[in-house]
Design brief:
Elements lengths: L4 H9 L1 H4 L3 H4 L1 E4 L9 E4 L3 E8 L4 E7 L4 H16 L10 E4 L9 E5 L4 E2 H7 L4 H20 L12 E3 L5 E3 L39 H16 L18 H5 L5 H7 L5 H13 L10 H11 L43 E6 L4 E2 L4 E9 L3 E8 L5 E5 L2 E7 L4 E9 L2 E11 L11 E3 L2
Parallel strand pairs: 11-17
Antiparallel strand pairs: 1-3, 2-3, 3-4, 4-6, 5-6, 7-8, 8-9, 10-12, 12-15, 13-14, 13-16, 16-17, 17-18
Helix pairs in contact: 6-7, 7-10
Length: 442
């Protein structure tokens, strides 16, 4: 079945009419907060995610796929059945069910338990002044890693965006598209994850129960370093594909200022130990990497407070902003779009729409684009200088609104540019100003 956005939207807006699945037929679709028309809670390369609330109060994340892929569907079905069969009851994995022909239009969907939480990098920023809270996340990652390894399971795309932290500071792993389970032995991976969290020479052929070792090491070292060193917080930028390390650091560690700083850190033994392991691993091919579990056992024995306290960190005033500044660039001149634009270059979603906010309120700006090499967000303010930065083809960004703000999305593919505009207004006494939308091709 060819993907039809209108049919998908009809289903989520009228679940009782179009869903065959009983749970979803008795549910309502939850809109995004403060948005009148935004039903979609997430969009990526493979599909769209909607939040649905059953009349009992239980909530689900429902994923519709953009394309029909029988191999992917068979894989998702096998994964869901396997996880159910081994009865792996743990808080960090969420319930997963593959529902075939779940709607009257024949959609195959994934139905997961909805988790209320924030992505890891936002949690880390919120807890910037609390090293013990950051280390508690590292300890939970280690515990989850041990449980999955004992069952022969690998997540396949461990990174900050796939770890949600709930209001009780408990972690939940999401996005199981790249997960390894024993029945997948001998098959290639469907994806290799974000480059900033993966070994530089990992390929889809490298796919087994130890697929997460390198990514876990990156995350543990990043969390320990951020807990121990205030001077590293300027590297944490919301809306980017990194927590601390970049692919450039991993490809050429000798030229990396970050590696030099961590390797010679006089303040924390745990940081130095994990940095030494990472540098050693970067000299090896991915299949030759040692098992991470013995290394963790050794470090935990040698450093009893590895996941509870940082060493030699002197208390003092904070020298960083909990929401670090970004290196803003001046707005560039508009590039004229070619007369015959590529049909693959499309802005699927960009919001929020029709939003009026209070001064200082944080707004989640989200976008999803196909056919683009990159996207640019240009912000213009009623007061202050304009600013711009570059992002990937899909994502979201939290931004504080202190004045009327116009945000322009520019989807770029070579010399072709597609633009969309939204305006976020401050609430005025006695009346509200509605947001204006302008679609431009010049």
């Amino acid at each position: 079945m060819a993907f039809d956005a209108d049919k998908m939207n009809a289903v989520v807006q009228n679940p009782a009419l179009f869903f065959h699945d009983k749970d979803l037929r008795d549910a309502t679709t939850v809109r995004r907060p403060n948005l009148k028309t935004a039903w979609n809670w997430g969009a990526g390369g493979f599909g769209y995610v909607f939040r649905m609330r059953h009349r009992s109060g239980r909530e689900y994340a429902v994923k519709f796929f953009k394309h029909d892929e029988p191999v992917r569907d068979a894989r998702a079905r096998e994964l869901a059945e396997y996880l159910k069969s081994i009865k792996l009851h743990c808080d960090f994995l969420i319930g997963l069910e593959f529902v075939e022909k779940a709607t009257k239009f024949g959609h195959n969907i994934l139905k997961l338990d909805w988790v209320e939480g924030v992505e890891l990098h936002y949690f880390v920023l919120q807890k910037a002044a609390d090293p013990s809270a950051i280390l508690s996340i590292a300890k939970q990652l280690v515990d989850a890693f041990r449980v999955m390894r004992a069952r022969g399971i690998g997540h396949g795309d461990i990174q900050h965006g796939n770890i949600l932290v709930d209001r009780n500071s408990k972690i939940h792993l999401v996005d199981y598209d790249g997960m390894f389970i024993p029945p997948f032995k001998g098959r290639p991976a469907t994806e290799i994850g974000l480059p900033n969290f993966q070994h530089p020479n990992r390929s889809k052929a490298h796919f087994d129960s130890r697929v997460d070792d390198f990514s876990i090491l990156i995350l543990l070292l990043s969390l320990r370093a951020l807990a121990a060193r205030q001077d590293l917080w300027g590297l944490v930028k919301p809306g980017t594909d990194r927590l601390l390390f970049t692919r450039e650091d991993l490809v050429d560690p000798k030229a990396s200022p970050l590696f030099r700083a961590l390797q010679a850190d006089p303040r924390d033994t745990g940081v130095r130990e994990m940095t030494a392991i990472l540098l050693k691993w970067l000299q090896l091919d991915f299949p030759a990497l040692p098992d991470l579990l013995p290394e963790l056992d050794r470090m935990e024995k040698a450093i009893p407070n590895l996941w509870t306290r940082v060493g030699n960190l002197q208390p003092g005033p904070l020298r960083w902003n909990p929401l670090p500044r970004v290196a803003w660039l001046p707005i560039q001149p508009t590039i004229t779009q070619a007369a015959a634009a590529s049909p693959s270059l499309k802005i699927i979603s960009f919001g929020p729409r029709d939003t009026v906010v209070k001064r200082g309120e944080v707004v989640n700006v989200f976008w999803d684009v196909t056919g683009a090499t990159h996207c640019e967000l240009h912000e213009s303010f009623a007061t202050g200088a304009p600013r711009v930065r570059t992002f990937s083809k899909a994502g979201s960004l939290l931004t504080g609104i202190t004045s009327d703000t116009t945000i322009k999305l520019r989807a770029c593919a070579g010399y072709q540019v597609l633009e969309d505009h939204i305006t976020i207004k401050l609430a005025k006494k006695g009346h509200f100003l509605r947001k204006m939308l302008r679609l431009s091709t010049n």
